[in-house]
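Sequence and structure are kept together here, with a separate record for every protein. A complete record is shown below as an example:
=====
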Amino acid sequence: MNVSDAVKARRTIRGYLPDPIPDDVIHEIFEIARHAPSNSNTQPWHFAVVSGNARDRLQAAIFDEINAGTKPYPTFPSGGVGLHGIYKERRRACGFGYYATMGIDRQDMAARNRLLLKNWEFFGAPHVGFLSMPETMHRANAVDLGIFLQTVMLLMTERGISSCPQGALGSYPGPVKAIADIPEGNAILCGLSFGYADEGAQINEVRMSREPLDTIASFTS
């Protein structure tokens, strides 16, 4: 698979098989991904992978907070903050696309909330990772993390591994820092659930559109 094929083949998957990915394959992916570029070669990223029993304990610990009524407390603002106009419309269309695929009425808030909670079940994926950087860093450094994350996802796609990048996984950092190996002083920007796709899962039937080229790019000569 070349890079062009990987970019077009990659899509967000929210239904997984329980089969774990071999450790050597996971290590290979990050061994290659560490070559991603960054501003002034600062390499501000850290990616903590949680699997097996630790993954199950983490899910339970996050739900302990949710069930206790704890509101999300991310270090960095969520991706929905500051959205207006077409950007907010696209975000809404994304959510409604998943509701429609799952047969959920827009007015059924209980069903919508149950779907939301699947974020912290890692959508059933056997592995979850948390991408962090020093808490003192800002937006420009987050660009580097985005470059690193895309590199990881494309390497996964090349190997037949599916993934789901999730801003929601930065919402409850307490349990994550208690269980995952997050460097001291780092803050979680987002997470990535990953594993082998369950091709028969209803939630994976949804397809998201992309804007035409002249909407997202301009060329001046």
Remarks:
- The beta strands are 46-51, 127-134, 162-166, 186-195.
- Residues 139-158 form the longest helix (20 residues).
- The first strand starts at residue 46 and ends at 51.
- Helices lie at 3-9, 23-33, 52-67, 85-101, 109-117, 139-158, 173-179, 213-216.
